[in-house]
Amino acid sequence: MKYILAACFIFLINLSAFATDTKIIVRAKAKDAKFIGSSLGGAEVIIRNKMTNAILAQGKTEGSTGSTDLIMKTPYTRGMRITDDKTAKFLATIDINEPVFITIEVYSTIADENARVSASTDMWLIPGKDVLGEGVVLEIPGFLVDIQSPDSTKNMSLKSIKAEPLKLKAKVVMMCGCPINEGGMWNSEQIEVKAIVKLKNEIMSEVPLDFVTTNIFEGDLKLEKTGDYEVIIYAYDSVTGNTGVDMAHYIITK
């Protein structure tokens, strides 16, 4: 028995001796925009063993959104890097002794659960073969949409609304936090922002929201009945296919 235990002990020592720290960089890039970093609280990264589902590493991307000129304006050629040492990333060091098939999951953004979008990919990680430089880049599509007014926690009277329509105000931002402006790099003119107004699950109207200032869209909401209204505001870019949604409820009394 003691020989069996000794053999097992030697086997475990040999196994750990072959284990190697292997580094991998993971980045989250907003579709048609820049990288998701510290300014939005980072993107959450989880690296799992695909076979066992065990978590091998977990953290969040930290750093800047990157260079606008390099990412958005410079023609891309094969092998060209669009990141530098300051560009947001999550660096994991994983101790493995044989090739491991991993799943990389990215969740963004941490700061806004309602707008959180996920992306994932699978790959083999080889002991001692670091994945650095650009690393693994996962694309996060969409917009961050936030209804800023009216205040959904307050009941409003139909009489006051008929006298002065409600001003719907929504903030629409790229997933990396990059600004949307008229004629800008992220052009408000190609983004449709509209409110779908529902009462008792029936669509009552659709209200377009116009660009007002950086990231802000507004429109007038006219109501003719009392009740519990659901307002769904969406943003849609027909060029890139980016979409985003936020919802609010408004109780209108007599």
Give an overview of the whole structure:
The chain has 254 residues and is mainly beta. Helices cover 11% and strands 49% of the residues. The protein has 3 helices and 16 strands. The strands form 4 sheets. Strands 9-16-15-11-12 form a 5-stranded mixed β-sheet. Strand 2 and strand 3 form a beta hairpin. Residues 1-19 form the signal peptide. Keywords: Signal.
What's the helix and strand layout?
Elements: H1 2-18, E1 20-30, E2 44-49, E3 55-60, H2 68-73, E4 90-96, E5 100-108, E6 117-125, E7 131-140, E8 143-149, E9 156-157, H3 158-163, E10 166-174, E11 191-199, E12 202-208, E13 210-213, E14 216-221, E15 227-237, E16 243-253
Parallel strand pairs: 1-7, 9-16
Antiparallel strand pairs: 1-4, 2-3, 2-5, 5-6, 8-10, 10-14, 11-12, 11-15, 13-14, 15-16
Q: What key phrases describe this protein's structure?
A:
single chain; about 250 residues; mainly beta; Immunoglobulin-like; 2 domains; five-stranded mixed sheet; elongated
Please give the domain count. 2
Q: Kindly state the mean pLDDT as a whole number? A: 92
Rg, Cα atoms, Å: 25 Å
Distance between the termini: 86 Å
Number of helices: 3
Strand pairing plus helix content: what structural class? mainly beta
Strand content: over 45%
Q: Which term fits the overall shape?
A: elongated
Topology-level CATH name of the largest domain: Immunoglobulin-like
Identify the CATH architecture of the largest domain.
Answer: Sandwich
Query: What series of H and E elements makes up the topology?
Result: HEEEHEEEEEEHEEEEEEE
Based on DSSP secondary structure assignment, what is the total number of beta strands?
A: 16
The spatial strand order of the largest sheet comes to 9-16-15-11-12
Q: Give the % helix.
A: 10-25%
Instruction: Let me know the largest β-sheet.
Output: 5 strands, mixed
Query: What is the C-level CATH assignment of the largest domain?
Result: Mainly Beta
Low-confidence stretches: 6-16
